[in-house]
């Protein structure tokens, strides 16, 4: 690959957003892995797909999901037990819009 598709700085930034601590060796490793993945995707972009019908799945599938119905949860302290920050009965999070 001639150009860097992704840099160490990109990997560190995404790790920070994800709140994942990476060692410098891991940053190197993930940068190389993501470089290969994105390079392969760029190769796929070179292919002519004008007459290819878009599909989400190679086999016929049907929706087997249940109805999305809100249900109360009685044990709120259990839900909030692992929250880094909370306020009353809510998760407290930083603003994520840049």
Provide a descriptive summary of the structure in words:
By secondary structure, the protein is mainly alpha-helical. It contains three helices and two strands. It has a two-stranded antiparallel sheet. Helix 1 packs across helix 2 (about 25-45). The mean pLDDT is about 85.
Radius of gyration: 21 Å
Low-pLDDT parts are none
Distance between the terminal alpha carbons, to the nearest Å? 31 Å
Q: From the helix content, strand content and strand pairing, which structural class follows? A: mainly alpha
Query: Which sequence of strands runs across the widest sheet?
Result: 1-2
Q: How many DSSP-defined strands?
A: 2
Oligomerization state: single chain
Main sheet makeup: 2 strands, antiparallel
Strand content: under 5%
Task: Give helix % range.
Answer: 25-40%
User: What best-fitting shape do the alpha-carbon axes yield?
Assistant: flat
Mean pLDDT: 87
Count of runs of 4 or more consecutive helical residues = 3
Order of helices and strands: HHHEE
Please provide a brief summary of the model.
By secondary structure, the chain is mainly alpha-helical.
């Amino acid at each position: 690959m001639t150009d860097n598709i992704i840099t160490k700085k990109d990997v560190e930034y995404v790790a920070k957003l994800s709140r994942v601590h990476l060692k410098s060796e891991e940053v190197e490793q993930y940068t190389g892995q993501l470089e290969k993945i994105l390079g392969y995707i760029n190769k796929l972009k070179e292919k002519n797909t004008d007459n290819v019908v878009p599909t989400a799945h190679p086999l016929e599938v049907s929706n087997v999901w249940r109805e999305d119905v809100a249900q109360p949860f009685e044990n709120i302290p259990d839900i909030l037990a692992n929250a880094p920050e909370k306020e009353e009965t809510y998760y407290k999070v930083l603003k994520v819009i840049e």
